[in-house]
Write a structure and sequence with these properties.
The chain has 196 residues and is mainly alpha-helical. It is built from eight helices and two strands. Helices cover 72% and strands 4% of the residues.
Amino acid sequence: MEATFYIAGAVAVTATVLMLTRLNVVHAQLYLIVSLLAIAVDFYTLGAPFVAALEVIVYAGAIMVLFVFAVMMLNLGGHSAKTEKEWLTPDIWRGPVLLAGVLLVEVVGLISRSRMDFTVDVIGPQQVGVALFGPYALAVELASMLLLAGLVGAYHLASEKISKPEIRHEPNTDERRADSGGDLVLVGTRQSSGTP
């Protein structure tokens, strides 16, 4: 079990780095799925099969399907790859690589000083529920408020775009004949602002 844990951890780290460095969005999503599956294996080896199943179903399944729909709706193509290539300059990687290096040194130090116990008891759904709605109830409520704020913000941004119709100038039939200006017409409608 110990070897499985470390192999899955290495796969997760490698897939995450590859996900961050891919210019093609679909390739990045595939590497992110591999990373999430490797994390699920780590949870399973630590004695949390319920959390591993949630990782596969919720993150590698539902959330990634949402990402695929977002890519389909945005219709990202060669232009987005070109833009990301311009963003991913060596200067932009210095800060994240430095911080990731500090975290990596800390993790390696913690693992080398304390041997992980892989003979833990299996943690089922009941223990997860008791922990979430017991000592961590405040954190769960804060996360739900954060998700609610994101939902309200997304609705607000979307409703602003819908409520402001595009207005363009279209001459009516009489004015086309007379070649004298036109009326303001809403896109998709044929009602003019003047009197018939």
